[in-house]
Amino acid sequence: MASTISYQRTDRTVPTRSPERASWDRETVHAILDEGYVCHLGFVRDGAPVVLPTLYARVGERLYAHGSTGSPALRGARQDEGLPVCLTVTHVDGIVLARSAFHHSINYRSVVVHGTARQVTDPAERAEALDALVNHIVPGRADDSRRANAKELAATAVLRLDLAEVSAKVRTGGPNDDPEDLELPHWSGVLPVTRGYGAPIPAEDLDPSIPVPGYLATR
Amino acid sequence: MASTISYQRTDRTVPTRSPERASWDRETVHAILDEGYVCHLGFVRDGAPVVLPTLYARVGERLYAHGSTGSPALRGARQDEGLPVCLTVTHVDGIVLARSAFHHSINYRSVVVHGTARQVTDPAERAEALDALVNHIVPGRADDSRRANAKELAATAVLRLDLAEVSAKVRTGGPNDDPEDLELPHWSGVLPVTRGYGAPIPAEDLDPSIPVPGYLATR
């Protein structure tokens, strides 16, 4: 059943440029989303675009983000019609240096999600989403922290965006120089971009008898 | 003269949340922009938001991006009125683990630029912008590559966005737990997020007598 393997293509998710880099494969999309935790969320305010970095988590075919109930953007999502958004996640994997300036490029993996974000009101779904937002960044952390109390829950808006109109775009490999440029004397290849974590820094007021938890030590 | 030190604040650049993290200081904004090279560019298409990752470079108080002249988005910027955009750059510096789930956060530095992008038509400015786009990612590389020829220039659209309506947002430091949570048994602190570069990977067809250039070896 193709529909379970891939997202349906739409005018918005079929790129006009570099179509060979596009993918609608669910596993590809999920893997890119699960590797990150900061997205860039775009919406329209007073007719103009706004793009803000925010945290997200995936639960099955749903993405969750959260914010203050006082946020103007999230207030927009509270109304019945929801808030039209574009949510984009990008990982940069390498800088591609070609002999020609024109063919310089970036190796990257990105996912673009179009849809309507809505505020979640069901308490059970809100609790699940908030746990997911913590565990998506640091797996296992939700159980090792104090969960939100009533006052905090009242101050927190949870946004949901279903994965329906989605595509990934992936570039890998070396430079694609034109044949007539191959003899030029310029070094060409890929400078890999790496990401990682430093040693955990305890809070100044942390009880020194509390050890670094295993879910951090193993990263 | 305050106007030369800071960008003028507008309704769009004064945040409703965490105003203590906001800055309109030019040096702060420039430093954040200059450390990155991938932005998330938002615009409105058929009334809906679109957010795409793209490369950018700063030249003084101008940002440049480029793309194919066939791109629908860039075609929008060709018209006299230009294309209203929001260009956002984000660096993630650390994951902040508080005792409470609610106070979990991210240390980050971001810049949000609102404005109207316009296609650059002046040949000298286009050449300067294209060099800047290469040098912004790998300083010194523009001189060590073949510059665009007439055909490539004809296929390349250069977008310009002036830095006028701009703000930065910066979070640093440890968790801000509530006093009543300080005795909880959960580890708290910051997991630093690091970025770097791996060893350069030569193109498969690179003449092995061409050494890795100094501008890569020293990164």
**Which consecutive residue ranges of chain A, at least 5 long each, have pLDDT under 50?**
none
Tell me the greatest interface.
A-B, 94 and 94 residues
Oligomer: homodimer
The CATH architecture classification of chain A is Roll
Portion in helices of chain A: 10-25%
CATH fold-type name of chain A:
Pnp Oxidase, Chain A
Radius of gyration of chain A: 21 Å
- What would you give as the CATH superfamily of chain A? Electron Transport, Fmn-binding Protein, Chain A
Number of structural units classed as domains of chain A: 1
Shape of chain A: globular
CATH class of chain A: Mainly Beta
Number of helices of chain A: 6
Largest sheet of chain A: 6 strands, antiparallel, barrel
Structural class estimated from helices and strands of chain A: alpha+beta
Number of strands of chain A: 10
Q: What's the end-to-end separation of chain A, in Å?
A: 37 Å
Percent range for β-strand residues of chain A: 35-45%
Strand ordering within the main sheet of chain A: 2-3-4-7-6-5
